[in-house]
Amino acid sequence: MLPRVIVHNSISLDCSLTGFEPNMEIHYKIASIFGANAHLIGSNTVKAGVELYESQVPLEEEKDFEKPKRDGSLPYWVIPDIRGKLRGLLHTCRRFEFCRDVIVLVSETTPKEYLDHLTKRNYAYEVVGKEHADLERSLEILSSKYNIKKVLADTGRILGTLLIDQGFVSELSLLVHPTIVGKKAYNIFGNINEKTILKLRRRKILPNGHLWLVYTIKKND
User: pTM here?
Assistant: First the structure.
């Protein structure tokens, strides 16, 4: 059985993912409520986060080559990285105290140099497609090999769109910020191919004008 998938994003009032500074304290506090076994995060999202919050990428240290010994209840960070964009950056994820460890999703075309890079640093990686990451195969492996029952997709528009379009998402969680980005808005739903019917399951007004909405995605018959 595939894991249950929840997409969780921070957006502006006009549904932009960029152009404003999200409240990460509230964002991650909400994320923890779902109790996911894994967070699925796109490589572009990770790279953008490192560039935003790190003035300079810290150098790797000897301890970064070892798997962290943390509470087994913490979620894995699962990152599709077919082309090795995160080479030299993954240790910033592994250092995050609320990350159990990193699992990288690769393909048959991923450069061998990157696979060697991951092996040397004791990162688990899974080959899940020929040229791209097969999402269904990825979810199957997470369930059968890592016993992951619930996945929180804390990611950008590309991966979120694929998950919704392919019918893997059961819930959509949105932290709406009291900001309008305007003409430069990067709409979270801009690339969804089909009309998606939602049912409001939860709404909560949070401090400083933030609004938390949770929708159930109705499956097409």
Answer: 0.90
